Amino acid sequence: MLLLSHLVARYQGELERRHGHQLLPSHRQALQAMGRCRQSGSDVMRLQCSDCEHSIRIPHSCGHRSCPHCQHHESQQWIERQRAKLLPVEYFLITFTVPAELRQIFWQQQRLAYDLLLKTAWETIDSFARRDPKLRGKIGAHAVLHTHNRRLEYHPHVHLIVPAGAINVQKRQWRDKVAGYLFPAGNLARVFRAKWYEGMRRLGLRLKTPLPREWIVNCKSVGRGEKALVYLGRYLYRGVLPEKNIIADHEGKVSFCYQDNKGTRQVRTLPGGEFLWLLLRHVLPRRFRRVRDYGLLHGNAKRLIQGVQLLLRVELPIPELPREKAPMLCPLCQGQMRIIALRERGMTPLLC
Hints:
With about 350 residues, the chain is α+β, with helices and mostly antiparallel strands. The chain has 9 helices and 13 strands.
């Protein structure tokens, strides 16, 4: 398997020549982290056997959220937290996509534009739930920002996983919709477009290029929601391209595979510097939260979601006691290893 760290080392110079003037501080930080992740010279943890005193050094991961090596644990934790909020109702995956004419302003004003996209998508769903004659209550959503399409081109959009129901807090009454239907996509698109214009006006964002009248919103049923959560959870903390999808590095060009909208395997080949630039375009601004919970699924609404689960007679799982990590064993005598140095710099890992 080709390692991204090796491609960074090989093509970083080419990237600087082609796009050095476009690299943001967040891009350089991500590049540096992914280039040293679990490599010689990276920080290491030293362990020693309690029996034979044999020592080993284990390289630290870089911990960057754009690195395909790292954040697997954090991704799984997010999925488990959202599973604990699942309700026995139908769920919908609603995707809000902005026109191509807005991509330039998204790139130039990333923090403002991404934040506005997430908030506007939620406000659109919330307004529909409050006015819907069958709901008229508080709805919830998990929102996840994506900045790429399947070819990894720059394509900002947001996915919302929404339970098809709302809670009337005053009456403590749960109301849901007819199976297979939540909100009309065309109406969602028109309201989303209007709210986006209002949000741009408030922020002082101006666009010279005229925008199309028809915007695209997709609203489809995803069953009980768990599969959609797992699907989105894969992309939260582990970069946009798994290393297993990088299939070739030959004569200065890198090839990677992906699945198109029809599920057919496709291959894309780019010069090494352009390949790195393709990945870096999806690095988010520092400390920007790409996943947010809204309404009754918000982190501060734990009592509310528990009340809804009681109304719907959800059998809540018994909380498990925290599990201790299995001890690391010595490769020579199988004795238990203990940490004697949590972080050492610039040392070659010793794994035997």
